[in-house]
């Protein structure tokens, strides 16, 4: 398909209420991105075997922009070509299930202390910076994933904050180079500190990054809504969900039941599923912490909601 034909599809797709597709035949970058906001459309893709997780396509065969972007994120350990659990194309395999169950067991078997709750509440009351909150939350959540509960220094929390969270972050001058260097530091720390049996370095690195970024953002929302009577509802509002979107990749030349006006390119068409908008539309925490169904729910969901509710109690006058 020629570039002008691709452009012609944009107004037609909008008219037919199809997802926005940006298909730019730029050499090496191979940009073909589909933004999916509607929960019903996300559900179609979620149940389609031709739409998979990023690592169902070998890293070296992914689009150039994706390979470049994920190198600066907490989702991919480029040195070992290992991906965070939720990006793996191994759902149902022994390795995938073992890693997922290991995280869930760590969170279930070891909760958090009342001192942890009080410490974070005091930081919020004092108007502490995001950096200070990150340095507090990273070890509270992540030391459990390291052999011997090794302490996690503040420098690692700050490196985790510097890693990319979205492709837009790459547009900031110097941000990409800083993110790649920070990622090497975090992965190096996780490797030297030895993850507990069953996890990979990238699993711990991802969770450190999530604590330093998404959890800090969530705590700031809690601080600004300390008297809210329904935290479940608060964190299903689109503007308050910690994770805006999750990526998926086309595995076949499919139109996915008419969601696309022309077929996807296998291994090159990447979907961004806007779970934050879906959460806001359906008012479900299963979108806030997953892709809308219990079986895809993030194991951090019960831990985080309990922690937030306990911190909220400490914020009350």
Summarize the structure.
By secondary structure, this protein is α+β, with helices and mostly antiparallel strands. It has 13 helices and 7 strands.
Q: Strand sequence of the main sheet, in spatial order?
A: 1-2-7-6-3
How much of the sequence lies in strands comes to 5-15%
Q: Please tell me what the overall shape is.
A: globular
- CATH second-level architecture: Orthogonal Bundle
Uncertain runs are: none
Number of domains: 1
Portion in helices: 40-55%
CATH class group: Mainly Alpha
Determine the CATH topology. Cytochrome p450
Mean pLDDT: 92
Number of strands: 7
N-to-C series of helices and strands? HEEHEHEEHHHHHHHEEHHH
Estimated radius of gyration? 20 Å
Outline the fold blueprint.
Blueprint: H1 3-15, E1 20-24, E2 31-36, H2 39-46, E3 51-52, H3 64-70, E4 76-77, E5 82-83, H4 94-109, H5 114-125, H6 130-142, H7 154-162, H8 175-193, H9 201-224, H10 231-234, E6 246-250, E7 270-273, H11 275-282, H12 285-288, H13 300-315
Parallel strand pairs: 2-7
Antiparallel strand pairs: 1-2, 3-6, 4-5, 6-7
Helix pairs in contact: 5-6, 5-13, 6-7, 6-9, 7-8, 7-9, 8-9
For this entry, give a set of tags.
317 residues; Cytochrome p450; five-stranded mixed sheet; 13 helices
